[in-house]
Known about the structure:
Blueprint: E1 2-6, E2 12-17, E3 39-46, E4 58-62, H1 67-83, E5 93-101, H2 117-125, E6 129-134, H3 139-144, H4 146-151, E7 155-160, E8 166-167, H5 168-172, H6 181-184, H7 187-207, E9 209-210, E10 219-222, E11 227-230, E12 237-238, H8 245-265, H9 280-284, H10 296-301, H11 304-314, H12 321-335
Antiparallel strand pairs: 1-6, 2-3, 3-4, 4-7, 5-6, 5-7, 8-10, 9-12, 10-11
Amino acid sequence: MRELNLDARTGLYLGEPLDTWLTAGQQDYAIPEAAGSSARVFLLKNAIGLSPYRRDPAFKVMRHDKIAYARPLFLEELNILAGLHGLDGLTPMLQAGYLKLTNGSGWPSEIAPLSKQMEEQGAASKITGRLVVFEPDEITDVLDQFEERLADDWLPFLILERRWEDNLYLVCDAGYTRGNFVRNLSMKQVLDIATQICGMLETAHSQGATYLDHKLLHYYWNDFRQKVIMIDWNIGHWLPGRFSPEVQQADLVQFSSRALHHIFTGRQAPGTVAVGPNRPEDIANAPTRYKASYSFDVQNRLNADEMRFLEKALDGGFSSAGEMKETLQSLQKKRQ
Length: 336
């Protein structure tokens, strides 16, 4: 454990927000489509240029204005990242800890005219406070101190490797690509992406973690390495020893209706939880079965076997991520 100051004059400080995105077609305002309901995310920078990280990472801090709501979600994410540490394809947790703000420090707005965006970025750099930083192998200490630190006005945070790859929402969503998503990824790549995600879910499920918040904003694509990266587990659950078939299938249906249907067709399945700062109850109250929806160009893109696979997945027809992965691998071979 190390104690540090958060101060742009002497060392580590917060840079621009990473959780405020422009919505397609919106010219005047930045809409927090990628914002989390329980945390804010900023770039973490170093004023003296001797960063302990390979590149400026992401700093994810629990919301100060929603403590009661955010507390169990942030604690769950800490448990999941500790339990899945080293999982290939999961954005690694570099460090974790607690932040206590200096009196008078305030957070920048999430929705602001573009003319004020630079001003908002500057607001983040003015935040000062004290940091208590733990290494990944000290995560037990972070968990042990959680309640006591919160009671003393500390906010838990995660320092995560910042993604530089292409966000799959921007690559696949028909709204963002103006209908040209089919040109961005071949079906062979789509099947490979789906196979990789199923592999990660298979491992996570085997260790007792469920993901649930499968909006495509949470997936990145490294085109050079042909590799998928997953972020953000704070709506998931850490259930080692209590992971039931019902929990597993609920996760698979959410994956199928939101991520899988999105990369196959350019849209989430009709009736799914909208993309945005989703809350656990949004997903808990979502339907358990969905129907596929195909535009004309998508019908020409997918073959009959791929459509049958998607429709079976949306109907909860797979009992495990491993079973889905095997079917996808079979579809890949047919494409080849």
